[in-house]
Write a structure and sequence with these properties.
- This protein is α+β, with helices and mostly antiparallel strands.
- The protein has 11 helices and 17 strands.
- α1 links the parallel β1 (2-6) and β2 (25-30).
- It binds adenosine-5'-triphosphate and magnesium ion (MG).
- Adenosine-5'-triphosphate binds at residues 113, 136, 143-147, 173, 175-176, 181, 204, 207, 209, 245, 256-257.
- Magnesium ion is lined by residues 245, 256-257.
């Protein structure tokens, strides 16, 4: 089986590693010179929407997928018609625009924070009057790692938020006083077989995911999250891995966003679950039975962001697994992560606290 992957960043790297273990081969399209996934397959160096590169990918591969969320949906039309492309482009179209995302959540009865789409300062002011403060203004498209967002706490912030983010189309959301954040990752195959990993509890710092750990020990929350992601997977006739990010407030879930791909909050599934999100994504898109998602011990992960502490390379502990994406340091850039698989939640949390201070 040869898998074509649009994007060769760290998600591509980890897909490539999982593919190797499953006896599959990967070919990537990526504009960078030596992107992280280079070690796991041939990279066609071209823009993500390059017609010739996508056509070549289609001709040489059995199935195509993407690990980069901002591929123009129209570009995917350059892929020859008989090569399957998963997840379905419709899912990508929804995830690329927060307005579409919120509309789909509403259509499927999945609760969301109160929100309004706005294009002008007047609309933004009116939305803030309705929603109250604090509120979060976000660009509808191209946001990641908390970029393209401004929190409005007082009236004076409204103009500043608009000046910072316009002329891009915007969405305003009521600020959710959440107790904590979780994500649920699910995989669905063409036959409709669906599985999920236990809930991950996620902590962000400066808008960027810092730690993730599972499972969240709350059966009612897990059942609710499984129901919501199941609605999305079935509605989209989804194939592959889908992530749903949620806020937990007063024992209820509010949907934040979806990612139609493997996700940073599921990196602990590599060593911390019987089958990782990467392996199940590949099994799903190649129409094979999905692997078991039961956890191994108490897993978690901490991201290495901005610069790579030397101590991270010297760790010698069989409960820790270092993943180095081979990227050059830059403030706010995800350079790697360390997975923890511990015997208990207490032990896992202590290890994450220690790693957080490296
Ligand atoms: N309405 C909200 N209320 C409270 N906090 C919020 C709200 N929206 C976003 N946040 C905080 O900002 C983080 C990033 O927001 P969001 O997931 O929408 O953006 P993103 O740039 O796509 O982030 P990522 O790439 O990490 O998924 C959330 O995980 C949460 O911590
Ligand atoms: Mg997010």
């Amino acid at each position: 089986m040869r898998i074509g992957i649009i994007g060769a960043g760290q998600l591509g790297l980890m897909l490539g590693e999982a593919a190797e273990a499953l006896g599959m081969e990967c070919v990537f399209v990526d504009p960078s010179e030596t992107p992280p996934a280079t070690s796991t397959g041939r990279v066609i160096q071209a823009p993500f929407d390059n017609e010739a590169a996508l056509a070549e990918l289609g001709q040489s591969c059995d199935v195509i997928t993407y690990e980069f969320e901002n591929v123009p949906v129209e570009a995917l039309e350059h892929i020859p018609g008989d090569t399957p492309l998963y997840p379905p482009p419709a899912a990508l179209g929804v995830a690329q625009d927060r307005k579409n995302e919120k509309a789909l959540f509403a259509e499927l009865g999945i609760p969301v924070p109160a929100n309004r789409s706005v294009d002008t300062l007047e609309e933004l002011e009116a939305a803030i009057d309705e929603l109250g403060m604090p509120a979060v203004v976000k660009t509808r498209r191209f946001g990641y790692d908390g970029k393209g967002q401004v929190v409005i706490r007082e009236a004076a912030d409204v103009q500043r938020a608009f000046d910072t983010l316009s002329p891009q189309p915007l969405i305003v959301e009521a600020f959710v006083p959440y107790d904590f954040e979780v994500s649920i990752i699910g995989a669905r195959s063409p036959s409709g077989e669906t599985t999920t990993w236990p809930l991950s509890r996620n902590e962000h710092r400066d808008g960027i995911l810092r730690t993730a750990r599972g499972p969240v020990d709350d059966d009612a929350l897990y059942a609710m999250a499984r129901d919501y992601i199941g609605r999305l997977l079935d509605h989209l006739d989804y194939v592959g891995v889908l992530t749903l990010e949620l806020f937990v407030a007063d024992g209820k879930l509010l949907a934040n966003e979806i990612a139609p791909r493997v996700h940073n909050s599921g990196h602990w599934t590599i060593e911390g679950a019987e089958t990782s999100q990467f392996a199940n994504h590949l099994l799903a898109i190649t129409a094979q039975p999905l692997g078991a998602t039961a956890l191994r011990g108490s897993p978690g992960m901490v991201n290495i962001i901005g610069d790579f502490p030397a101590a991270a390379r010297d760790l010698d502990d069989e409960r820790l697994f270092l993943h180095d994406y081979g990227k050059s340091p830059r403030p706010g850039r995800k350079l790697g992560h360390i997975t923890v698989v511990a015997a208990s939640e207490k032990e896992r949390d202590e290890l994450l606290t220690t790693l957080d201070k490296l």
